From TrEMBL:
Protein name, as recorded: Cell division cycle protein-like protein
One Pfam match: TPR_8
TM spans (from-to): none
PROSITE patterns: TPR, TPR_REGION
Keyword Repeat tagged: no
Phylogenetic placement of the source organism: Eukaryota, Viridiplantae, Streptophyta, Embryophyta, Tracheophyta
Region entry Disordered, spans: 348-371
Extent of the TPR repeats: 101-134, 509-542, 543-576, 577-610, 679-712
Keyword terms: TPR repeat
InterPro entries: TPR-like_helical_dom_sf, TPR_rpt
Start-end of Polar residues biased regions: 350-365
Length: 737
């Protein structure tokens, strides 16, 4: 009953029938109370998003796996203190962190959300040292800015660690698998022989026991009844003698350690048609086989076909004491102990007796053809080991490329990240995750057109494989595609995307961020703010939602609330440079220029290649009367992104305020060719030409600025400048006073 319920629960979990798994597991725990079954019920609760139920049933448990599940439940319930206590060693449980690499990874997340950066970095590194394939730990290190180069993390040390882990898993698995398969095989043989006895009335009870070979009879009973050297399944030694499945050919010489009477006893079940093939010559051969050395018998049977693939009737080899004293590894079994069942001479109708003996025959064949040296290496054959090592090498090389690209991206070295991802094969490059990384790189480079192309491709892939890629779809579009469409002012596409995400999952915070971006593009900041706040209600740790709330408060000139939102975002992720940038812009509007400069510097430490942050940092320096530093910062911003017109415009503005009109005019003439539709550029050129007393050109540029539909406030200023063109500078100064 217990095994049946256990198997049913595991099956339900694998088939995502969580409520049914919970019901069956509750019955299991009531009938067979144990902490192991309690762990299984907790797994069912966690799979069904019932962390509170798992929390209550696991509270006070002492086993390592129970502590890990309890800590995971606490983490889901945001009980970080209890989760840490459950994972760390104490007086009650001195063991290491339960769960191995997963336990250290969970502890690292707990420390990160608690604001203990150094401790979280230590735990993530510990998780990677225990399991080099714990990619999420490396990703968290990249997010914290503490990741080492991928070539160092996924090095030869990691390869040796994986080899040891794989070998240990193979040996452990093979031991359990061999015992299970031996038991199943012997049970099947016993059932078949029980069926055979129904057709042989009149036989003695002793003969029936000889034929059944059941596990219920002790080994001593077998030896007394058979008077032979045969041993039962509990010894896991030489296989039992069986009949050939082929009816029209003599059975193979498989009875190497059996006495003749036992063989005849089994053969008598099938009548005279089988008995006629057992001649005196064969009896002599059997006796000779028993006397020969094992190596000679193997040489005589080289004609038996060997195959590297399992047939339906294949089974594991039973080892004799002369062959080995231990159970071979799984790789050794797969590489050395498989044969291909012969299909020649099989009749159209196969009786239960014939099919029942097929597996035992193949076992005996294998027992005759396997060399003693096959088991000298418990880790498998050299070919298996080479396959294992080459497989580990391929995986680590792939992780090196992905790790380098991911690290460069989170260090905002986006050009380098794009070059690294180009090294991937076509199959790996066209996966969702890699394409998303490429789209993010273009987004951070402010190449919104290429970012839009890449994200649109991912969108198409997700649409093809929905609903399997729903989570990928949401993650991709929440933070980036909706922002890309907002920057490109694609209002209709952004609205369609928001509707699509709502139809997929209304309870996802990413969905409401996309809806909020749609309203923000329409200048409906109050509604956008409500959408972002709804996203925060669904996930309080969603950093970007707090930052977007801050942007909307700033647009509504609610700078105090904006500052609170940015601070909250930074409390979740200190490397979220957008929040530092938002704080700087808030202080810039409040004319707190020194504070603004500090915030921009913090943002630049995280993303040192953002020309936009450099530009506004230069503006803060200029307003602080630090003009030389401001000009240097503008030059750095121009070099960082030559396509960005903003630093060139503000550089010309600073030069004009310093009275260097010729340099300012030169910069603006270059900028006019790059951005001919910017009214502010033509307006500033008009002011400079007015100062240079080139009134005709000044009027021309003022008129051009008005034709480009500037904002009402800017249009009023431009008209005022045009009216003052003929007014002497002295009178203009007096009017301004």
């Amino acid at each position: 009953m217990e095994n049946l319920l256990l198997n049913s629960v595991e099956k339900n979990l694998s088939q995502f029938m969580f409520t049914n798994a919970i019901f069956l597991c509750q019955r299991l725990l009531a009938q067979f109370p144990s902490e192991v079954n309690l762990q299984l019920l907790a797994r069912c609760y966690l799979s069904n998003s019932q962390a509170y139920s798992a929390y209550y049933i696991l509270k006070g448990s002492k086993m390592p796996q129970s502590r890990y599940l309890f800590a995971f439940s606490c983490f889901k319930l945001d009980l970080l203190g209890e989760a840490e206590t459950a994972l760390l060693p104490s007086k009650e449980y001195i063991e290491e962190v339960p769960g191995g690499a997963a336990g250290h990874y969970l502890l690292g997340l707990i420390y990160r959300y608690a604001g203990r950066k150094n401790s979280s970095i230590q735990q993530f590194r510990m998780a990677l040292s225990l399991d080099p394939l714990c990619w999420e730990a490396y990703g968290e290190l990249c997010s914290l800015g503490a990741a080492e180069e991928a070539s160092t993390v996924f090095s030869n040390v990691s390869s040796h660690c994986l080899q040891k882990t794989c070998v240990a898993q193979k040996v452990s698995f093979s031991e359990g698998a061999i015992i299970d398969q031996l038991t199943d095989s012997d049970k099947a043989s016993k059932d078949a022989r029980l069926w055979q006895t129904e057709d042989a009335p009149g036989e003695s009870q002793q003969d029936l026991k000889i034929k059944q070979f059941g596990p219920d009879i002790p080994p001593d009973t077998y030896r007394q009844l058979n008077n032979s050297s045969h041993t039962n399944v509990w010894d896991l030694k030489t296989p039992s003698p069986v009949l050939s499945q082929v009816l029209d050919a003599p059975p193979p010489l498989l009875y190497k350690n059996m006495r003749r009477p036992a063989v005849e006893g089994l053969m008598s079940v099938h009548g005279e048609s089988r008995r006629k093939y057992v001649s005196e010559e064969m009896s002599a051969e059997v006796a000779e086989e028993s006397g020969r050395r094992r190596s000679a018998r193997i040489a005589a049977r080289k004609k038996i076909p060997i195959s590297q693939s399992f047939g339906k009737d294949s089974q594991w080899l039973h080892l004799s004491p002369s062959e080995s004293n231990y159970v071979p590894s799984l790789s050794s079994m797969i590489g050395k102990c498989k044969i291909q069942s012969s299909k020649e001479g099989i009749p159209d109708t196969v009786t239960l007796n014939d099919s029942a003996t097929t597996s035992d025959q193949s076992i005996s064949d294998r027992g005759s053809c396997v060399n003693d040296d096959e088991y000298s290496n418990p880790n498998g054959s050299s070919a298996d080991r080479f396959s294992l090592v080459s497989g580990i090498s391929e995986v680590l090389n792939l992780l090196k490329i992905l790790g380098d690209g991911h690290r460069h991206l989170l260090m905002y070295n986006c050009q380098e990240a794009l070059l690294v991802y180009q090294k991937l094969s076509q199959k790996q490059y066209n996966t969702h995750w890699v394409l998303m990384q490429v789209g993010k790189a273009y987004f951070e480079l402010q190449d919104y057109f290429n970012a839009d192309s890449v994200f649109t491709l991912v969108h198409q892939h997700c649409s093809l494989y929905r609903p399997a890629s729903i989570s990928m779809l949401l993650f991709c579009f929440s933070d980036f595609l909706s922002l890309v469409l907002k920057h490109l002012k694609e209002e209709m596409r952004l609205g369609y995307l928001a509707q699509e995400l709502i139809s997929v999952d209304r309870l996802s915070p990413e969905t409401w961020c996309a809806v909020g971006n749609c309203y923000s593009l329409r200048k409906d900041h109050e509604t956008a703010l409500k959408m972002f706040q709804r996203a925060i209600q669904l996930n309080e740790r969603f950093t970007y939602a707090h930052t977007l709330c801050g942007h909307e408060f700033a647009a509504l000139e609610e700078f105090e609330y904006a500052e609170r939102c940015y601070r909250r975002a930074l409390s979740i992720d200190t490397r979220h440079y957008n929040a530092w940038y938002g704080l700087g812009m808030t202080y810039l509007h409040l004319e707190k220029y020194e504070f603004a400069q500090n915030q921009f510097q913090m943002a630049l430490q995280i993303n040192p290649r953002s020309s936009v942050i450099m530009c506004y940092s230069g503006i803060a320096l200029h307003e602080s009367k630090r003009n030389d530093e401001a000009l240097k910062m503008m030059e750095k911003a121009i070099i960082a992104d030559t396509k960005n017109p903003l630093p060139k415009y503000y550089k010309a503005n600073i030069l004009a305020n310093l009275g260097d009109y010729h340099k300012a005019k030169k910069v603006l003439e270059e900028l006019k060719d790059c951005a001919p539709q910017e009214s502010s550029v033509h307006a500033l050129l008009g002011k400079i030409y007015k100062q240079l007393k080139l009134y005709d050109k000044a009027v021309l540029h003022f008129g051009t600025a008005l034709d480009l539909n500037p904002s009402p406030s800017d249009a009023a200023k431009i008209k005022a400048y045009m009216e003052r063109l003929i007014v002497p500078d002295e009178l203009e100064t007096e009017e301004n006073l």
